[in-house]
Design brief:
five-stranded antiparallel beta sheet; single chain; 30 strands; about 10% helix; mainly beta; about 375 residues
Length: about 375
């Protein structure tokens, strides 16, 4: 072999080795990405495990504009854990790892560029999550430990707080730089009251501020679930209480309001038991999902935080089954029109007329509505 042949052979070997290194890095890197096509002329997108569909909503009809097949979720997501919408551009959420899922990771969908980014991490949201204008918060709680992790829109983990005592936390809410969530301490020596936890996030550092019992009563222990905080006004949902002396559990459906400035605490009645999840529809309107097993219905309530009035919407009367269907997402697309994704149907619901004006069969794995 002459000198030129040796040099050429060396270059080929170097290229092969470089390609092998690049393949290894791509295969084993925790961060990866995919791409889908952005449509300029759609009103909303439907996201599924294996597709992105674009629609227009006009003349009381769903007009499909695009349908792109792309794997977004490999295994499964926990539908009741909050998904974060940031800057009217990014959707961030978590995919569950084993044993329930396939791969634990945080996922970001960019609706401006069409990029889907993945970060394989053990710090995905297993039990609860939250969002502020810039960051996505994830949490996991078990009998041994619990944490809060903070991710930016590039899926970089910027901070992590580990609790000294394990806490089962509900989804997070932000009010400026303040982060709030409700939690029950796992190793409590009392009746397991719900605490309001207060954190702050400044300069990318998560700092514990304080905690307080949300509603104290020597005879009763109240059950609280998700909450939101706006302008120091906290709203949470309560599914009942336990009588401490007898341990008897009483179910109800109420919204709890706590004025964090004046100290006022009050309950407002809902028309059905089993409130389990809060979906924010706008500045003053909340959708409150009711637990199928408790209520025997697939249903939600609308609650106005300005006048504290509520209305009950029972989807079971329109053919949805409490045994097989569940609510995946709700969005307010017009002043009086809701888009509801439940079971294998997308419906348009007229609030003023209290009826479904449009429905469409969709893939079972559709899980999120993104309003453009």
């Amino acid at each position: 072999m002459n000198r030129k042949q040796k040099v050429g052979h060396g270059i080929v070997v170097a290229i092969i080795l470089l390609l092998g290194v690049l393949f290894f890095i791509q295969r084993h890197s925790s961060v990866s990405s995919k791409q889908f096509s952005i449509q300029s002329n759609v009103d909303f997108y439907l996201l599924g495990y294996n597709s992105v569909e674009g629609y227009n909503f006009k003349d009381n009809s769903f007009e499909k504009v695009s349908d792109e097949k792309i794997e977004i979720v490999k295994g499964q997501i926990n539908q009741v854990v909050k998904r974060a919408e940031i800057s009217n551009r990014y959707l961030l959420f978590s995919e569950e790892g084993p044993p329930l899922g396939v791969v634990g990771r945080v996922i970001s969908v960019d609706f401006e560029t069409g990029k889907i980014h993945y970060n394989k991490t053990s710090d995905y949201a297993f039990s609860s999550a939250g969002v502020n204008p810039d960051y996505y918060f994830t949490s996991e709680a078990n009998t041994d430990d619990s944490f809060i992790a903070v991710f930016d829109t590039n899926l970089k983990e910027v901070d992590k707080y580990i609790f000294k005592n394990s806490v089962f936390a509900s989804d997070f809410s932000n009010d400026g730089d303040d982060i709030y969530f409700l939690g029950v301490e796992v190793n409590s020596n009392d009746n397991y009251p719900t605490y309001l936890h207060h954190f702050s996030l400044k300069n990318k550092k998560l700092q514990f501020e304080n905690k307080e019992i949300l509603h104290e009563d020597p005879e009763l222990t109240y059950f609280f679930d998700n909450s939101i905080v706006r302008g120091k006004q906290l709203y949470s949902i309560s599914g009942g209480y336990r009588i401490n002396s007898t341990k008897e559990k009483v179910l109800w459906g109420k919204v709890f309001h706590y004025d964090m400035e004046s100290g006022l605490k009050e309950f407002f009645d809902l028309d059905e038991i089993g409130p389990v999840n809060i979906i924010e529809l706008g500045e003053n309107l909340l959708a409150i999902e009711h637990e199928n097993n408790d209520s025997g219905k697939i249903a939600f309530s609308l609650f106005d935080v300005t006048n504290h009035k509520s209305s009950f919407i029972n989807l079971s009367q329109f053919g949805f089954s409490a045994e097989t269907d569940y609510i995946k997402d709700i969005k307010l697309i017009q002043d009086n029109i809701l888009l509801v994704l439940a079971g294998n149907k997308l419906i348009a619901y007229d609030i003023n007329k209290n009826t479904i004006i449009l429905e469409k069969i969709v893939d079972e794995d559709m899980f999120h509505i993104w309003l453009k």
